[in-house]
Amino acid sequence: MASEKFKMLKDVLRNVFSFKFLSELIYLAAYYALNHVKGVRTVNKGKGVKIRPSVLLRDADKIFLDDYSMLNHGNILWAGKENAKITLGKNVILGPYVQIIAFNHGFDKTDIPIAEQDYTEDDIIIEDDVWIGAGAIILAGAKVGKGCVVAAGSVVTKELPPNTICGGIPAKVIKHRSEEQTKGR
Hints:
Oligomer: single chain
Strand content: 25-35%
């Protein structure tokens, strides 16, 4: 038993003090600096915005976060490659691991590999007082109306009306939030 623990400790130390570990650590630090630190510095944000340390913000100069919105653990917000913006209204809450991506690969041409085709992109607008559930994906051109709740794991590809509860792949209206539910907010 003690020899197994010693062998494991020796194995850990050999890996920690290896060139591969050092190069991966440097790569990880650079990745975090570009995708989180730079993003937090360049994103357009209002007062009281909360951004968790594992959030990735790409092309953050085209991302707009209004007052008191919250970006949760593992969120990825990636604005368009050229012009497409991501806009979150006031009091928007993103559950963990939500992805909001304002561009996509073109794929219309069959004589050119998809990876070499031009991108398509479109703005994404999420209005005030919206809750996006864990693991949801919001794609280019989507608009989420004020007071909307998007169920966990949903894929939003179009406009969702205000004060609705939406879910599915693709997301659609499940039911409308009643006046009773929204009073006092």
